[in-house]
Amino acid sequence: MKTYFITGGTGLIGSHLIQHLLDSGQQIVALKHTTNPITIKNQAIRWIEGSILDVPLLQEIIEPNFYVVHAAAVISLSAPNLWKINVEGTANMVNICLQKEVKKFCHLSSIAAIGKNFDKKILDETNEWENAVYYNNYAISKHLAEQEVWRGIAEGLNAVIVNPSVVLGTGNLEQSSNQLFKKILEENKFYIDASINLVDVRDVCQIIELLMESNISQERFILNAHELVFKDFFDKLATKLNKKSPNIRISPLLLKILKSFAKFYTVFFPKSPLSELAWLSNDFASYHSTKIQKALDFKFRTLEDTLDHCADFYKKVV
N or C, where is the chain less crowded by C-beta within 10 Å? Predict the structure, then answer.
């Protein structure tokens, strides 16, 4: 039995990871924001209210025997605390985990931190980050957070980084990528003329545990199972949920304008997942997960399996 310390314990990935590790017989210490409700009630979980910006609290909580998964982050284009949480908060975690010499550290990043390359349509972990104007604030913050982890690795931190694509899972419809399901359930009419890369939250959790149990260190891994155009994805999802699929196309040119004026866009579409997820579209780029599949001999779930699992859940709770 190991003791895992999870930041962002009430988030989409954090909450699923906690349940996954509980099912594996692990002990959990989980950090949650004061305003977030406890998502899993179990005596094996020690819930702590606080922030990754509270250095004294982190120094008090984190122990040398901990396996640490840093999943706390702000997923937004323009939230006022974006930089402090994603960058400064990660630096705090890295510094204290170095100080305490924890067993292992896993940083939950994003494919947004992989960067883009207009000369390459297939991207992997070797893609170089280029300082270009088309990166949004979220992507830059996740890139800078990764740099803090690499600094920690250079200073002796036993760590790995995972870069999931858009994560599909069950839970609160207002939470991050779950809004995609809400969009279909509300029969929103708009879709983006771009591609989306997807991965099942259950696969993400399993991979994190396998990496933490392994001798693999000082590596980053893209976690992406499927890439398809938004229209095809929404059509499949609408069929599963017995809803009408979006039929009004947002062109690449309009999408580019909307990305450039994200705050303006949010004003006109405050309840649409497009306001926060449009920038997750990848202009028809594919992110390959060959590295993690070879490292762990891992096979991702099929898209059919993922959509069936999620649709069965959301049809019952709506």
Answer: N
Range of the domain at 88: 3-169+198-225+286-301
> Does residue 307 belong to any structural domain of this protein?
no
User: Would 24 be classed as within a structural domain?
Assistant: yes
The total number of structural domains that make up the chain: 1
pTM of the model: 0.92
What CATH number has the domain bearing residue 64?
A: 3.40.50.720
- Tell whether 189 is covered by a domain: no
Give the Cα separation of 191 and 274 in Å (integer): 8
| Residue 100 located in a structural domain | yes
